[in-house]
Design brief:
130 residues; alpha+beta; Immunoglobulin-like; 1 helix; 9 strands; 18% helix; 40% strand
Length: 130
């Protein structure tokens, strides 16, 4: 049995396989699902934002339009998120969360702000076909 032709074939095959593998690694990864961006405006003692949003990755851009420190918290079916630090008057913070379909409670968790009216309901709808 002559091994030389097999060695030659193998020596040509290995670089081709490595080239194909490295090209596959260099290919662009599939695009990540782009999330929605939602503007939220806080002031004494109200939260202005949409009543309904679609499920999926969402970034809440939370603006404190009031005179006091405020924050932003969501509680809902399988998803919860909070802006960790109070937002000073005139400043903005972001909260990114993956929303699931259902009803959420949205409120300012600082002091008695929720009791004074900084609370609302958010309905998250299922994506089409679900």
């Amino acid at each position: 049995m002559n091994i030389e032709p097999m060695k030659r074939a193998l020596s040509l095959l290995v670089p081709v396989a490595l080239l194909a593998f490295s090209a596959a690694l260099a290919a662009d990864p599939p695009p990540a699902e782009k999330g929605a961006s939602v503007e939220v405006h806080l002031r004494e003692y109200a939260i202005q934002m949409p009543d309904t949003l679609p499920a999926g990755p969402t970034t809440f851009v939370v603006h404190n339009d009031g005179q006091k420190h405020h924050s932003f918290k969501l509680e809902g079916p399988g998803s919860e998120g909070i802006v960790e630090q109070p937002i000073p008057a005139g400043e903005t913070a972001n909260l990114t969360i993956t929303l699931k379909a259902g009803e959420y409670k949205v409120y300012c968790p600082i002091g008695s702000h929720e009791v004074k009216g900084m609370t609302r309901k958010l309905v998250v709808t299922a994506p089409p076909g679900h």
